[in-house]
Each structure stands twice: as C-alpha cells, then as structure tokens.
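Suppose you are handed only these lines of text.
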Amino acid sequence: MERWIAVVPAAGSSTRMGTDKLLIPLRGVPVLAVTLRRLREAGLGRMIVGVRPGAQDAIREAVLGPNQLEDIVLVEGGGTRAETVAACLAEAPSGTTHVLVHDAARPHCSVELIARVMAAAERWGAASAGLPAVDTLHEVDSEGRITATPERSLLWQAQTPQGFALEVLARAHAHPGPRTDDAGLVAAMGVEVHMVPGEPANVKLTHPEDLPCGPPPGVAVGLGQDVHRLVPGRPLILGGVHVPSDLGLDGHSDADVLAHAVADAVLGAAGLGDIGRHFPPSDPRWKGADSMDLLARSSALARAAGWRVAQADCLLLAERPRLAPHAAAMAANLARAMNVGVGAVNVKFGTNEGLGYVGRAEGMAAWATVVLARL
Ligand code: MG
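From them, the structure of the protein bound to magnesium ion can be written out as follows.
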C-alpha cells in the first residue's frame, strides 16, 4: 500500500515578480493556499512546505490559518530548490513510500494531472509532468551566443508535479548533482523518469503578467487633448516641424498642439495630471517654450514615476494646409522627444469637413493616446 506525502518548495525569493508571489491573492486566496488546497483535493493528506528562514509564522498566519490548512508542516528551506526539497524530505514521517513534489507557484494544476503523475510514479518509480517544447531551444554560452541547437522533437519542458518512490528521491538528493529539478536529479543517477503530458495552464507564476488578476499587468494608457487658435503672424509648428503656412497657432509656448496632446497623454497615463499642471501658461519659464522640450520633460516625469513610453497614436484635426507630407518627420520628432523608436509613434490627420472652428480654419485640435510600460 503506497503512502504518499506532498513536498512543496516555497522558499524562493520571487525576484522576477517583484513581490512575494506566494502571498498574491487569486480571487481572494493566496497563491500558496490555492496550490495546497489543490493537492489536498487530489487526496494528499500529508504535506511538508519548505519556506524561507524566518517566514514560518507569517505563512501560518496569512496562508494556513485562514484556509483550514493548519495541519501542514512548515520547515526551513535552503538557498537552493534542491536544499529546500532535501530539508522537507528529512521530515518525511516513517512509513512514507512515495513523494509528490510540486511548485508552490503552480496553483493552476488540475487534480487529474496530479492523479496521473501519482499513478505513473507508482508504476515506474519516477514520473514528471511536462510538455513537448513548442519553441526552438538554443544552448548559449555566457555571452549569449548560440553553441548548440538540440533537436526540438526530443525536448520537453518540465512542469511539476513530479512523483517518486521516496527511496529514489532521497538517494538523488544524497548525491551531489547538477542544479536542476527533482526529475533531473533522479535521471542523472541513471534512473528512468517517465514524462506525463502536463497542462498548458499549469504555468509557474514567475512574472507579473502571469497573474490573471491582482496587481496591474504593468501597462497604463493615457488620453491627451489640446486646442489652439490660428492667427496671422505666427509660425505653424506641429510635431516639432515648421510647416509653411500664412496662419500659425497662437499660444504662450510655440503652441505645438500635437506635441501638447501627446505630452498630456504621457502625463495622464503615468497618473501625473495634465500638461497645464506641470507647465502652466502663467509661468514665464514656459513663454515661447519648445514643445519638444515639454514633451521630453513629460516623458522624464513619467520615467521618474517608473514608466517608459511604449506606444503613441495621435490625431490632428486641421482644415489646411495639407499635412500628410510632414507625418514622418513629426513622428520622428515626437519619438525622439519620448526616447522611443520611431515605429512606436503613429501620426494621422483629419479635416472637420468645413464644420465648426476647425472647419472654418479658426483653430486646430489634437488628441493622443499613449501606452506606458513599467520600467
Ligand atoms: Mg496647448
């Protein structure tokens, strides 16, 4: 009769997530609790979780207590995954015959997959969930240069759960082996490990974008708008391009209506208010200001708040002159001011079909949307 325990290494530092990912709530329940509940649903009564040194009390209070998981054993993990698994194995109660190792950060694993891995491990002694590689995988040197490209059809990406006879896994952890997962350690001893088809949804939560809900996915969108009056005797400057025209836009700065709309969208996306707040017309510093400079300053403010510009789309409404020939130069200027590639900026034009202040060529209006990405 097999007697299983589950071992859950949970002592990682979550550096790529930027916050302790095991405590992030999924529909209100911490990731680690979702994972442990899933193992319990699959019939694993006895579980040992390896946590960061000093984290036992916090995990007990935030994860185990509120989720009826108080009977789970917490042990202090080590500096590597293998050390953490070994520390858990040392606590295996007598009579244990098999061990299921499962990543704390794979909460989406199905009960059926756990059952398939357990059945395979009971039959063969060692089994791992995994998926045939979809992408070509290269081996690279320390400089990032390709040194080998293994045949893709022979490559699988490992997942967990991984199941083993306790005696086999304990032996693998007693051996000094390569830095790899448990299946890799066991296979390195010459023991056959059988791959069990895993599940694409069974991802290891690693980056913020792996989270279906919770913290923002690292993207923000802003909307900007501006209007300026057309008057004689002023230069017409749009997107930093001096456009030949008998009328120019009136304003405190150079009145670049397009650049103002884009800057407004950058500031809005970063949650920094609007262009009027940062560069008020009442401030003599901005009299005659180059709007490309205002846009660069707006992007710098967004950057200081942790954002970089990823994309901008802007629309200028003007009855005349014809602006299409200047679109590429405007996009290049705007891109340079925001420190992005020119392909990230789209400039387009429309007329107002003779209607309203734009149609009567009394003024021009511009709108922009900007997408920011977390630095
Ligand atoms: Mg303006």
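What can we learn from it? DSSP finds eleven helices and 18 strands in the chain. The first strand starts at residue 4 and ends at 10.
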